[in-house]
Amino acid sequence: MYPPKFDYYRASSVDEALSLLQQHGANAKVLAGGHSLIPMMKMRLAQPGVLIDIGRIDELKGIRVEGDTLSIGPLTTHAAIAASEDVQRLATALSDAASVVGDLQVRNRGTIGGNLAHADPASDLPAAVLALGGEIEARGPAGSRTIAADDFFQGLFTTALDENEIITAIRVPTGQGTRVSAYVKFPHPASGYAVVGVAAVLDIAGNKVTTARVAANGAFECAKRLAGVEQALSGADATAEAAASAAEHATDGFSADDFMSDIFASADYRAHLLKVYTRRALQKALERA
Amino acid sequence: MAEKLFGSAIRRREDPALITGRAKYTDDLKLPNMAYAAILRSPHAHARITRIDTSKAKALDGVVAVFTAEDVEQSGVPGQIPVGWLLPNMKMPPRSLLAKDRVRYVGEAVAVVVAEDRYTAHDALELIEVDYEPLPAVADPAKAAQEGAPLVHENEPDNIAFDWEIGDKEATDQAFAQAAHTVSLELVNNRLIPNAVEPRAALADYDPINGKLTLWMTTQNPHIHRLLMSLASLGLPEHKIRVIAPEVGGGFGSKIHHYPDEAIVSWCAIQLGRPVKWQATRSETYMTDAHGRDHVTHAELAVDENGKIIGLRVHTYANMGAYYSTFAPAVPTYLYGTLLSGQYEIPNIHCRVQGIFTHTTPVDAYRGAGRPEATFVVERLVDAMARKLGMDPAEFRRRNFIPPDKFPYDTPVALQYDSGNYEGALNKALEAAGYEQLRKEQEEARKQGRYIGIGLSSYIEACGIAPSAVVGALGAQAGLWESAIVRVHPTGKVTVYSGSSAHGQGHKTTFAQLVSDMLGVPYDDIEIIQGDTDEVQYGWGTYGSRSAAVGGSAIAVSAQKVIEKGRKIAAHLLEAAEDDVAFEAGKYYVKGAPDKSLTIQEVALQAYLAHNLPPGIEPALEAVSFYDPANFTFPFGTHIAVVEVDPDSGEVKLLRYVAVDDCGKVINPMIVEGQIHGGIAQGVGQALYEGAVYDENGNLVTGTLLDYAVPKARFLPSFELDRTVTPCPHNPLGVKGVGEAGTIAASAAVVNAVVDALAPFGVEHIDMPVTPEKVWRAIQGAGK
Description:
Helices cover 34% and strands 27% of the residues of chain A. Chain A is an alpha+beta fold. Chain A has three domains: 7-53, Uridine Diphospho-n-acetylenolpyruvylglucosamine Reductase, domain 2; 61-173, Uridine Diphospho-n-acetylenolpyruvylglucosamine Reductase, domain 3 (2-Layer Sandwich), CATH 3.30.465.10; 178-287, Enolase-like, domain 1 (2-Layer Sandwich), CATH 3.30.390. The model of chain A has no long low-confidence stretch (mean pLDDT 96). Chain B is built from 20 helices and 28 strands. Chains A and B meet through helix 12 of A and helix 4 and helix 20 of B.
């Protein structure tokens, strides 16, 4: 639990952080809340020569409602997201997910940007951001670009982020009309990470679901949409029964190899849990309609 | 006059220092010129070491020294880690401080770095080059017992460490032949990792001028460590070693044992002539702290046509790991086989235990040590039989309990239970749980597709194992008495020196409570000293729920001796006959003339001034005792777990937990309840969450707290506790011990509850830990 030596820089602006990244290249890692990177360094699984601490850059913090978009600074902590009335109201699934990350200490230190950039397959926020149709704004030497959440998560601890880019904002559309959402998880009893976690976002008109976006983490190497469920729900009745029947499609389009497997939960069991927790997420969202 | 403290839930005097962070643990201690050790550990479960090159590590700036087994050998010290309990015909493979030619488990110490700081020491570990030639490994005890399994000790013919039995095989086989009904279960008692909050640590300081080693370490028994360091590891004379237990953050058995690490650190300090500190990381403790349990058992129970138990037959493979840990051979034998009668009249019992070497971390005593394993076997079988007979499990137990009028009761497995009222505790637990009502609710819930289960566990415990002559005859290379000095100072203040060594139990509070009552001295005037071999005369330490029953009794005997000496002095000063002097609430007085009196404080001053002592009485007022109990103590009780199983996901929720325990007289009810709470949590942990897993190659898969699930507070309901009080008949305090009770009872109660919940699916058993996937699979499998 003693990391090897490293150099430490504290950046006071995004520009400074980017230039440090440019300077140190692959040898450098960006430090935000430190709740993924530091444990890996202590176990010597990550051995960066340089840490660039962006944790005190104020421009990267905070939650703002901008028209029909919720904009969240990447250094916003899980605790701040969970406590935000705007997030609770406009992106409930994200609020749900942020409130069940780790424990209180982790939520007070860990940040949404660090979480998404780390892309742990079992962390809670990716499914919520994906189901909400979020976007990740990143800035690098070539300037800013926007990456849809659908394109962002690419594999195990792998994202569309370039090595010399930093996340500068997470944007979530708040939707038109009646949008309800929820995130539920089966936490691992040791780590608290999601064995399976499902985020469901439903747009409802009258008694019908007009659009459904459903995504899961924990089950796969990275957060993925559940297309079978989304299709089954589109135009379906906004009822618990319809939700239960749609949840049976959670594994559609996936093969046994797609599911994570470990000593706590085999691929078979995870596939089963995915259906159970999809049903629970859908029903919880519907209860909010 | 002091108020009566025995039985009072006063707050612990230990806690202000603990909760304000002022308590000093081993890693808080710093000495001038101190260096830091880090230990290189084998990444292989089984491998030949063909080359070790330490030159790069030695060249690193800040590294003081790097040592290997060869250096220890050349120093001429004995360099051994001995076993402290011998069984007939057991194999005796040697164990050295550092591995030389071969490593036998992941985590075995291979080399040690001493550096100016901890970071450098860990950096240097990565620079040591070791060439390993990996060899086949075996982690499962049942597999390791088979012919052709990879050998753990290459000079032995097989991996069977010992083959031990107890009871009458022939009579038991006959009972089974005549049985009206039998049940059998294949049981795995899962391997556990101890998880004391404070990982092990040591700080060794050697004074080359007077040749004395001072060793601060995380220990439950400093005198045992001094003895073994002297005799087997370091060869230093015993009086030239001082072992001190500073604040110790929990042990659960893991800090009883004599490990290589603390000896290596001591040896380094002697070599280098400067203080050396080592603090294990959590990952190191996972690989090196002796693990607990790990049994594979075939167990059978037989009853006659009246549902009376007539036989119990058990065969167990007990995993020893790669080497014997200090008291490992005792745990699956004399602390297990002897407890298999449980609370029941079982005329015929036979138990065979094969201790098995495997390529895994050594296994030794972990909270409960043998007794949870025995309780699990007995209580699972009892439930299985009740189900087979279609009888309520409470009623089946009741029918087979040893009745109160049969004590003292000789079991067929060598113990004599001195006292007990098993039905009393069962009835109280059933009442507290609202058992009848619960069964109705269970029935109702099932109709709605909800699966509630109710599990009972009626346990017997043997604590404070003794007397020493008996445990010696069983193989212990230790005495199991305890010592105490009660010293009254000239001003009447009191210091007590106890051979018990607390690491969370609150002895400083409870021992002061009982001394205050006995001597009539204010509680705040009493200091308890323990955990230091230079201060305390001798001690066997704190484990096996022995400290109140044995350590506390030693203090009581010494306090009584002080009272008697004081009586002689008081009688002399009061010019009365000794028989006419009474002692009460701190005052000696002449019977019938209470005005003629002296306080114990006044007597103490006179004892020290020694101006006017009766003939033949030495000055001062203190007494020493070495108390060897007449027998074990036998706490008992019934615990009831209520669970709900989610049939969709397999998740188990513990809804309620009712515990009725009988630990004899209670010194401090708050501390007793705290012990029961913690014990239940650990027992529930074993039942539902915890399990050390090795893969086929002997790698520890559950190497961190990310994978190994200890129970969190939010997993547990608020426990409902009650007690019955059946005093121990043979010790002066009537106390029996409570440190392990919760752990002993809880695992069986919870598993019985889960199996009960799943009865409608036809599920008959699920191995611990009962994880959601196992539950889900059991439901799937039973449905087909």
